[in-house]
Amino acid sequence: MDAYKQSASSLLDTYTSFCFEVLIMAVKELTILVVCSLIVCTGSEIFTSTDKISHLFGEEKFLLDAFSLYIDAEEEIVKKMKRDLLLLQLGTYSDPVDPEQIKDPVAAFILLIRLRSEWMSIEKYTSSSLSEYNVYQTVLEYAEIPQVEDLQGAALGLISLQELYKLYPHNITKETSLNAAQAYFVGFVAYNENKFQHAFLWFLYSLGRLTQYSTVTENELLRYLSDSAYHFGSLPVAIYFSQRLFNLDPTNEEVKVQLDLYRFLRYQKTSNKDIFTLINESSNSYEALCRGETSKRQMALSCRYSTGGGNPRLMYAPVKEEVEWDEPRIIRYHDIISDRDIESLKNISRPLLSRSETIGGVTNIRTSQSVFLDEGYPVVARTSKRQMALSCRYSTGGGNPRLMYAPVKEEVEWDEPRIIRYHDIISDREIEILKNISRPLLSRSETIGGVTNIRTSQSVFLDEGYPVVARVNQRIADITGLSMKSAEHLHVQNYGIGGKYEPHYDELDTENDRIATFLIYMSDVEIGGSTVFPKVGVALKPKKGSAVLWYNLHKNGNVDLNTEHAGCPVLRGNKWVANKWIHEYGQEFRRPCSLSYWK
Ligand SMILES: O=C(O)CCC(=O)C(=O)O
Ligand SMILES: [Fe+2]
Question: Where is the Fe2OG dioxygenase domain positioned along the sequence (predicted)?
């Protein structure tokens, strides 16, 4: 692994290699040589010979000339530094004004690479700085510079997105493309993780983007392409790339031997795997749910509130809407007209009906009778304005006075386990405050096994010392009717590139266990990032300001095995959530226990 890190590190170093040091070293050595010949290394005593002393005039001139040369060289370097600075500044030209806009994982990856290589180039200049007061060194102490591990982690994030969502390099780089060296780096990371198909696809992408300025060579790419194909089990492809490599460098004995070996092996094998096509190998429920292959049942269960884009008549009586199909988009609106109004409309229409026509007049294409009714009829006006009761409920938390005037919109997402979504329970302002408090405190989230790739996010627990946290906790207590006495502090989480939390249970198997989870979505996520329950086939899409609640334990205290859940990899977006884990102690009268063996 260390060797791997080292090679990755040196690979990156080459991205930013500058040859100015060669020049400065040469001039420095020249100066030293001159000084050396004058003072120390001659081995002679100058002072004992007037002739030698007089000779010094000439030597002094030589010394000053060398010094002048040295200054010229330093000036050249300053000029080069200024040129490089300009180039680096140009590179930031198209950056988003709002850093939160970094939603594209590839753009985030490039930013990490850019920052690292910027740092490396500045570091090269400043480490040999002539200035006594080297500001940059001080700046460095405070700067957060992406490490090689960050780049590897980000590349792995991209690879895991590809795996789960079955994406080819050209899919994932649709919005932001990678240059040959960057793509090579992703391939290299995949290769070292033995993900040979993904490695191959990235090397191929890199080959297609190779230019004369690339810091990766065609030789390197061909070698890795043939190696990856061989390891994946695609011998003809391995032979093809080895042959290309051999054509480039016919003197390379090693390639020749390899080519012969592949040819020999090819005759032994009867079938070869197709390395160019990603196949959907897993029928894994977690992955399918993350891809949005949600069960029909949940679609039918879920409802959305629409306020017609802020239409005041719908603000307080939103319509329940359901997406029946995506292309063409077909939406069903539920309960938009009462039975009584339907009867009145029928009664008004009956005497007025006449044969419906099409463009061709009365034909057998359309065999019905119809009539257009204007808003002169109150029922028509009323219906088009719509003021029906809702199927998605308003909850006042069982009469909790704090919710009487601001009832919570609640929606049943699933029945067993019961998963309820509460809408608009936290304002955008509160979310911003929570994020601002959390940002400097975030650290890598862990699981029972410590820091692992099962959970790629950063998080922090916030106590009630922050008024906003106290307010949010109180709201959770009001909505759930549960005691917060033994609950954990509010846990704010932000996911990274391809950030995910693989299937797990929240319960900890302790005496005072996590009875319920209240998960607040502090952001929308454009693609991916759903919370999914693989055992029951539920996918909950993050919706900023909403929260979901489920019980991890049955009333008898046993863990509800259907509550296994996961946070899907974020494909596009910046996912923030806050968890409130509510424990058993304190709920004795609020959620009474059961003696049942099953529940
Ligand atoms: O982010 C999510 O969607 C789920 C988070 C979660 O399950 C957890 O933090 O325990
Ligand atoms: Fe969880």
Answer: 486-584
Cα–Cα–Cα angle for 173, 277, 196, rounded to 5 degrees: 80
Residue 155 and residue 239 in one domain: yes
Longest dimension (CA), the chain: 135
Could you read off the pLDDT of 397-409 as tens digits, one per residue?
A: 666 777 766 667 8
List pLDDT tens digits, range 102-140: 788 999 999 999 889 888 888 888 777 777 666 776 776
DSSP string, 396-411: -TTT-HHHHSSPEEEE
Pairing of strands 408-414, 490-495: unpaired
How much is the pTM? 0.71
In 3D, which of 113, 138, 126 has the Cα closest to residue 20? 126
Residue with the smallest CA separation from ligand 1 atom 9 is 579
Token reading at 96? 């988003």
Element (H, E) at 581: strand 576-583
Q: How many domains does the chain have?
A: 4
Which atom of ligand 1 is nearest to 445's Cα? 9
Quote the ipTM score.
0.99
Query: Last residue of a domain, which of 205, 239, 268?
Result: 268
Ligand 1 pocket list (CB less than 6 A):
493, 501, 506, 531, 565, 567, 577, 579
Question: Is residue 295 included in any domain, yes or no?
Answer: no
Partnered with residue 361 across adjacent β-strands are 358
Q: Which residues face 532 on adjacent strands? A: 539, 566
